[in-house]
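Late entry, written up from scratch paper. The run itself happened at the end of the previous shift, but nothing got recorded in the book at the time, so transcribing now.
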Amino acid sequence: MKQNGINLLLLSAALLLLPSCGKEMFDEEVYNGFVDYQFMIDNVDREHDWCLTQSGTMTVSVPSDVYTVQLLTANPYESASAEIAAAVICQGQQATLHYTIPIVHGQLYLAALTAQGNYMGVMPVAEGTETVALTYDQLSQKGTLTRPANQTFTYLYEVDFPYPGDFDYNDMVLRISKQPGSSPLEVDLSVTLQAVGAATSYAAAIQLAGVPFNNVEKIELISGAVLDENYPFTPRYIESQDLLIRGRSKQAVIRLFESCQWVFNKTLNELGLIDPMLYYNTTRTALEEYSAVVPPVTNVYRITFTSAEQASAFSFDNIDPFIIHTYNNAYWEVHTYAHKFDEVFWAVFGNNKDKFDNHISWSIVVPKADFRYPTEGISLSSFNETTEERFGPYNGFSYWMQDHTQQLDWYLRPSYSQLLY
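Output as recorded:
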């Protein structure tokens, strides 16, 4: 961390001046100074966008017997690590792939599949290609096929926004993948709650950013169970019990759960409270009355759009999981950085949105399915300007924080794996 101890005067000032219900008392300079002080890295790049991915579209013409076309991150006949970055059921017609891939990546490939799901072969495609013809003479099956997995991103959160936490980014850890459903109108989202690194209760949902509510016909749970089934209290964060909810800006929202603690512990004590409130999957071993190691929970949600064009255009750019929690007598939402100031269910910023633009994120989206996140209380990395010391499980993260164009693959190179879950 930057220093030992806490500047009590600065802390007290920040607490007093943060917005509270019905009050307009906010000092931007005091607040942002406090956040900078608490963040574990000095000199954060003020142009930082916290983005490790890039997006694009590719229009592909295919032979008439190609049922599905995929964009892959590697050649599945040569690599066991190939992932499906985009897939469209084209049924022999021209298809447009909307994809989001890591900024640092290898050669991309197009794959053609039959209606039975058999691979007809792959062909390399250059980065940035917008229009391409997939033909039989370009398809190759050289090697042994390892069927690629669906691309999965890991979403990491600090629950305390707008207050700065410990920045271990494990208060909520989600792993999300997507794939076409059983028809051109459908997209399936696999959502895994991997960890809850907070001994408190918060709610969560997924904003389908840029997707109007009226463009979604329905959302179904096709695998798994309602995450907060039989929740015994009146919901306060997410009032609707429907899977598909209309947000304040008329966008589509998937309801996940009202209480993270209830997902893993559906028991009440003699006072009628969830007990114990534990950290889940953020310590390597279970610690009595403190933490537990449990199997992650996975649900698959099927989104049925009102048109095939809307379904094919849906990408990771539209996926914005967020937390809802209580701070200073108000309900706050913790979003991915691109949607940091969105107010899907609750409005708290008033005219102060720009004053919270401190270039710090309470969430990180890592384009890696099995990303190993820090154990409880361990920051991703730290850098002290005075001592020039860097420490943490991902030292590359501190370099990336200071220059958003550098070490964009830091998540692939852990420095101290013993500090990771």
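The chain has a mean pLDDT of 91.
(Scratch paper discarded after transcription.)
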